[in-house]
């Protein structure tokens, strides 16, 4: 069994103001995506020009935060949202959903594309490789914050989280997600998108890759206590929400390679 490296979830405390590592993870992910987008925008076949990147990052950040929060309250809020509607606005209490943030970014990119006259799927292909950076850093934030831990296990890399009331050795499932949804997915997408590909192909790889990775890791992750297992008595809410992403990813890849429509060079 590995010892849990206890790290204060609060990275910076200035009087009543507390900045958590989870929040810094989001900011770092956005900053890294911004830098990479600037580099990619120099390539002649990219749909986003360098002077449009700042505006693009603003739209993405807004979609992530608003969509993530709205998605969490709708997908995971349950009775709490009914009993206390104001909780949805208290972002400092935590609670973000990737699937909600994903839908928020889709809507934000629709608006950005209309504003700058950029085709929606070419725009999604451009930003998809940068998303896993924020996903991976967010999972590290979950690990430091001792949330979303895994199921009990006897594996030699199991950890006992100090915040766990049962004090059981558990899968560090946050690190599994960091490795699959973050490092691996970023490496695959960044390499795959390094040259022109058929429109929708990069988006298809992202949707399929994230959906499959999340579905797999959920088998090792403790389900939300207030939700538990749902479909068939063994699927979690996260797995149910990931299945459409897998289907969409496969569909986009079929459309991309059957159509054979490549980016303009």
Automatic annotation (TrEMBL):
Keywords: Cell membrane, Lipoprotein, Membrane, Transferase, Transmembrane, Transmembrane helix. The keyword Transmembrane helix applies. It is an enzyme of class 2 (transferase). Its EC number is 2.5.1.145. Pathway: Protein modification; lipoprotein biosynthesis (diacylglyceryl transfer). Pfam families: LGT (PF01790). It is found in: Cell membrane. InterPro entries: Lgt (IPR001640). The chain crosses the membrane at residues 19-36, 56-76, 96-113, 120-140, 175-192, 199-217, 237-257. Coiled coil: none annotated. GO terms for cellular component: plasma membrane. It is a multi-pass membrane protein. One of its GO terms (molecular function) is phosphatidylglycerol-prolipoprotein diacylglyceryl transferase activity. One of its GO terms (biological process) is lipoprotein biosynthetic process. A 1,2-diacyl-sn-glycero-3-phospho-(1'-sn-glycerol) binds at residue 139. Its main location: membrane. Catalyzes the transfer of the diacylglyceryl group from phosphatidylglycerol to the sulfhydryl group of the N-terminal cysteine of a prolipoprotein, the first step in the formation of mature lipoproteins. Belongs to the Lgt family. This is Phosphatidylglycerol--prolipoprotein diacylglyceryl transferase. It comes from Pseudohalioglobus sediminis. The lineage of its organism: Bacteria, Pseudomonadati, Pseudomonadota, Gammaproteobacteria, Cellvibrionales.
